[in-house]
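Sample 3 of the quickstart, ligand adenosine-5'-triphosphate:
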Amino acid sequence: METKSTTKAVRVVARVRPSTDPAVEASSRSISVHKPNGDESQTVSISFGAQFAGSKDSYKLDYCYEENETTGLILTKEIKPLISTVFEGKDTNVIALGARCSGKTHLIQGSEREHGLAVLTMAEILSMAEERGDSVLVSIYEVSQETVYDILGQEKRVVSVLEGAQGKIQLKGLSKVPVKSLSEFQNIYFGLKKFQKLTSDPPQKSHRGVMIHVTTGNVDSRSLGRMNFLDMAGYEDSRKQNSDVAPLEITRINKSIYALQNVMYALNANESHVPYRESKLTRMLKDCFRGCNKTLLITCLPREYSQDSFYMLNLASRICLGGNRAMANTTKKNNGLARSISSSSAAQGRPTPLAVSANPKKQTGLRENVTEKKTKIITATSAIKGRKLFGEANVSVKSKVNSKKIEGKPKTEGKPKIEGKPKTEGKAKIEGKAKTALKKKISTTKAVLNVHTSSSEEEVCSSFIVTESQSFIVTDSQCSVVEEEKSTVAFSSTAVAVEPVTDSQSSVVEEESSALAFSSTAVAVEPVTYGEEIFPGANSCHDASADRAEIVEKDDISSVTVEDSTLVNEGENLVKANNSLLFNETASPPLSLRLQELSNTLKSICKPSTQFSAPEKYQTSLSKLHMEEVSELSGITSEAVHSVELKTPEKSMPSNIACSPWKTFSAHSTKLKKSAVGEYLKFLNTAEKEDLKKLKGIGEKRATYIVELREESPEPFKTLDDLKDIGLSAKQIKGLLKKEMGDIF
Ligand SMILES: Nc1ncnc2c1ncn2[C@@H]1O[C@H](COP(=O)(O)OP(=O)(O)OP(=O)(O)O)[C@@H](O)[C@H]1O
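Result:
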């Protein structure tokens, strides 16, 4: 009895672990599995008892193995069909994930008495290899704290995950040990525990992987396929008080679980972008996941209800649904917003990881939002949609044309209002602080407000960038939104950038009272500086659970009443106009010029009397107008505004540093170095291929590879270390930079 072949990249099943405590009352053995066609069911529904808050709904998975079904049956039904593909040259993956103590290790490794899937599979592979005259090798590794360790060597040693010129992953330092018999494998596999106990490492949660390699002929021959078994560390809510694991460690583990789930979702939903780079684990297994390779995801569920298991089931169901939807409509590609998750119960109301990037570094500042990344400057349509999404949560958005703007009068009275529900304290706080920030004219031109509300019921994280000016257009809402029943809104946003509109433009949209309804118990609004992580609430968002959820198409989101449709059109036109201005004039200026700008900035800092102006060619019309407006509002000279605009915003220099010329100089040099590196990376992330080739050390091959990397991940180079992905050593990277920077002076 073998499972039906499926075209889905990821098959999602569950495995129910029997209750380990016989004293547990029958009522708490709450899981119930509905198989409409018995063992032949294509989809099954799993639910917990109605007595558990928010868990009355059922979740669909591809199949569920109950406690009376053996590991051998899972092997026969699920894994045997995959084994043959390994001999055809494909990679396959079997991943066990779930809450802590849900039976993952028991399922994958088992015990010497009761074999787990990896051992049973190895027996099958060994016998097939023997028949065919092929060889089998094994690697065993652990991933903890974003580091991969080889645990087959004499001592635990770090494995480097390198990406070759063709994008192929190389695991440098991962041992491959030939295996000839099952007992040999068992000695290796079960011997690991002893090895672990001998080490003085503090106990850490980790993911453990067993990679079985099949090669044609002898062990040194060409590799055929690989079979990966992954025993993921257990998910656990980091807010638990009684855990024996440190909250930071839990958060880290959960983040990598989310990253894996995001990859599984993207693969199953056939998305064009798969976020492999969000964790070391997914990055190292990229080659095993992609293409037509198959993955079996087994969600381990203890029979007793637990919030953590419930959450894992919820996410597994979503991955499964994504696959069904992709199969039903293969032509329709998902994008970021389409991945928004709608959760219809308010049982927990936390944003889900599928909507949240596992990489908090991705949060970006205003400069990047507005001037650099075309992908982050969204169209008016999505800006308007962003409002609609807010509107879903009882948000009232009123806008009107501001004729004053067209006449070019200085703006003094309008202020952005961010209002909560009348009952919340957050409303007053947000409004009050926004006003204060505006009055104080933070950073001369912009006030950045970071909004993070959190409660046991919902968490809201977002950043707002607000200008002093009275007129606003929302230009970036690259946010995934989780909608809740009961009028709660939970969203994770990189930035909602609000840009000033200038008099020369034909129409202006003013947010007269754009209100975000936060049904929260605590709201904190803090001004933050650009250089810092704008999104401190990201982690708490990651650590989220949600009740019943379904994937919605972005167009499925029901809209709010837009009070003035002409206004919306004007808003769209205006943002389009702005964007075109931005794009046309800022397209990939040569790096040397941008570095030159930085150098000039440094000079202008060192000599306050010499005002700096960026080369006319690289000023956008919008930025010029912006500067003029700012200068009009603040009374400072437009040259000074240029200077403010072009330098990387940072905290002001402490006075004790300023009083020593050497310290001042060295602080500025460090700043320049940081900025130059930043510019260099930005250039790599954005420049056209031909421009890339102008860099020293970047030829046709590397430029092509960089462009390919960018197709996979919009911003592949976040640190200089990422240049190793294009085959450069640390020494080469340093050499390149030296050459590039040396030319400026
Ligand atoms: N199918 C099963 N039958 C009997 N006992 C089981 C089964 N699955 C798990 N157990 C028992 O449950 C306990 C926890 O199992 P296991 O260690 O596999 O959980 P885990 O999910 O790997 O835990 P962690 O999250 O800490 O890695 C063990 O004592 C194991 O023997």
